[in-house]
Design goal:
The complex is a heterodimer of chains A (about 375) and B (about 140). By secondary structure, chain A is an alpha/beta fold. Helices cover about 35% and strands about 20% of the residues of chain A. Chain A has one domain (about 1-120, about 210-380): Peroxisomal Thiolase, Chain A, domain 1 (3-Layer(aba) Sandwich). A nine-stranded mixed β-sheet of chain A has the order 3-2-4-7-1-8-11-10-9, sandwiched between helices. Chain A is globular and about 55 Å long. In chain A, about 60% of the residues are buried. Chain B is mainly beta and about 140 residues long. In chain B, the strands form two sheets. In chain B, strands 6-5-4-7-8 form a five-stranded antiparallel β-sheet. In chain B, strands 2-1-3 form a three-stranded antiparallel β-sheet, with helices on one face. Classes of the chains: A alpha/beta (about 375), B mainly beta (about 140). The interface between A and B is large, with 35 and 43 residues.
Chain lengths: ~375, ~140
Amino acid sequence: MSSIKGKVAIVGLGVTEQGKLPGSTPISLGAEAFKRAIADAGLCKDQIDGLLTMPGTTSPEGPLNYLRLGEALGIDPRYTGSMVMGGGTAGALIQNAVLAIEAGLADYVACVFGDTARTGGSRFSRASGWGDSWGLWGMFGAAANSAVAASRHMALYGTTSRQLAEVAVACRYHASLNPNAVMREPITIEDHQESRWIVEPFRLLDCCLISDGGVCIILTSAERARDLRQPPAIIGGIGQAYTTRNMEREDWWYVPHQKEALSRAFAMAGVGPSDVDVAQLYDNFTMSVLLWLEHAGFCGVGESGSFVEGGRIRLGGDLPVNTAGGNLSESYMEGWLHIVEGARQMRGECGPRQVEGAETCLVTGRGMTLNCSNAMILHRA
Amino acid sequence: MTKSTENPAAPQRPLPTIDHDNRPFWEGARASELRMQKCCGCDHIRYPITDLCPQCLSGEFEWQRLSGRGKVFSTIVFHQVYHAAFADEVPYNVSLIQLDEGPRMFSNVVGIPPSDVKVGDVVEAVFDPVGEDITLPRFRIARAG
């Protein structure tokens, strides 16, 4: 397992404007992000011989997204495909890229996502469940599943809405330092408490944004990375895990697979939570950050609420989390921007939001009704 | 919750499509019974409805009547209207019910204000007709004893 430790690096980052981008399509945004990423890396497009994509929620071609994007970019990759795992996709594609590069199946892999969820018609309000969907009982939308987790966490451990607010406030503060973030106006815990209910125990400010935008992340071997334009972010460890049995498991709501994914990534990298200088934790809702903190071992089970109090996860705190603003305030690119920010922190290029001297970053992702999770350890080169 | 079928122009609430696989569940609900699949291979009682037992992969099962009793495992309150048919029902409760026989199911706890439902409340099934042929299993706070 340790054979891929430190062997592959993130070397190119491309991010489009984010937010409300009428006239864009998932392909146009993905292509623009690709252009920016190859320029960032100092590569030309024909050097990209791996193309891995996530279809946007509004992409009509669905999992044939890799074909359409390859056509749009005019490239002929020797390793390609699309994956659909919601917020777990970005990390899973990066892991595929690591394996492909280390196996020699491709030298420069571009992972690409473009979406117009904001202007192209959100699909996040659908009912979830199987067969006779839970919508029969009025169970709709992405927030509900995480709200179920939050409700039980609150009941078991006394976690409060004001503690959830700490996450929203920290992310917004970080977004205020990020020129490309969508929501940059700082907020307070009181602002959170006064925002309207969406699905109790979640208020509006517990929920992520819905955004248009594109992201491209280019990877190559750590050895080739030395010859490129940017300081590489070295991938020290990766891990995935799933809970496919869903409600058959009593602890399903607690997303136990996250702990497994994290353990695998930590073990491969040979580090632990005390080595992490900065973390980018998937935040579709505020509650998700609390669960990641527990699963990663930054605090004990049930202790995440008090852990985040007093600005501990804000810049300047013990563990800065989501330093670009996260899904909650930067933009909802389903976790892609968490990886981008992790790599930027390792490059040391984040300006006012740079975590001074940061050498190790944890990045996590999760998708599909709490099912799919992954974790990655990045190091400064 | 009330029936939403009086006004033909009103948006229709989602209703199940009755098929071979789920007919016993919905026929049970019409008869005021909560019925779920019990595996003939390992006795595991499962929900949602599936062809194979997720424990032992046996395809043999029988429909078993459950007590309808359980506890609130988690509970949330919808304020946001995600489906037009629920516009007049917000705020409404959705709870994950831990049934005494093992399975968990999403449903509604009715009969008390939606935010008064608490994790751990003991509940029992009630059967609420929502259409000509469809009766939804819901739950209320269990009476003492």
